[in-house]
Amino acid sequence: QVQLVESGGGLVQPGGSLRLSCAASGLSLDDFAIGWFRQAPGKEREGLSCISSRSGSTYYTNSVKGRFTISRDDANNTISLQMNSLKPADAAMYFCAAKRNTCSSWPWGYDYWGLGTQVAVSS
């Protein structure tokens, strides 16, 4: 049974850092791209970053490029999102999701989703 479990969320001050993890079970990272999304209340779900299944190539949306880094630990089937220089606008529920083969910046096409982890950015 496929399961994605996010962890690492919490409260951080502006300019601070958090490292989110997505533990994947029941699927191989050789076959699935893993994306990170976030959704704030009243806002659309936003694609942030993705790492592809085959090449490990990465994608970042412009608002997080240079601040966030996605990485993959194949041995532990875990995907991380290192978030630096956090801003109040980054506050949201963060989700990881799995999509067969290739990345997409849009939520549709992702087959599996975690339940999310909350990130708050406040002084």
List keywords for this structure.
globular, seven-stranded mixed beta sheet, mainly beta, 123 residues
Task: Explain the overall architecture.
With 123 residues, the chain is mainly beta. The chain is 0% helix and 50% strand. The chain is built from no helices and 11 strands. The protein has strands at 3-7, 10-12, 18-25, 32-39, 46-51, 58-60, 68-73, 78-83, 92-100, 112-113, 117-121. Strands 2, 4, 5, 6, 9, 10 and 11 form a 7-stranded mixed sheet that branches. Strands 1-3-8-7 form a 4-stranded antiparallel sheet, with no helix packed on it. Strand 5 (46-51) and strand 6 form a beta hairpin. The mean pLDDT is 97.
List the helices and strands and how they pair.
Layout: E1 3-7, E2 10-12, E3 18-25, E4 32-39, E5 46-51, E6 58-60, E7 68-73, E8 78-83, E9 92-100, E10 112-113, E11 117-121
Parallel strand pairs: 2-11
Antiparallel strand pairs: 1-3, 3-8, 4-5, 4-9, 5-6, 7-8, 9-10, 9-11
Tell me the span between the first and last alpha carbons: 40 Å
Largest sheet: 7 strands, mixed
The helix-strand sequence is: EEEEEEEEEEE
Specify Rg, calculated over alpha carbons.
13 Å
Range of strand content: over 45%
Low-confidence stretches: none
Mean pLDDT: 97
Q: Residue share in helices?
A: under 10%
Count of DSSP helices?
Answer: 0
Computed structural class: mainly beta
Shape annotation: globular
Instruction: Describe the oligomeric state of these chains in a short phrase.
Output: single chain
Outline of this structure?
The protein is mainly β and 123 residues long. 0% of the residues lie in helices and 50% in strands.
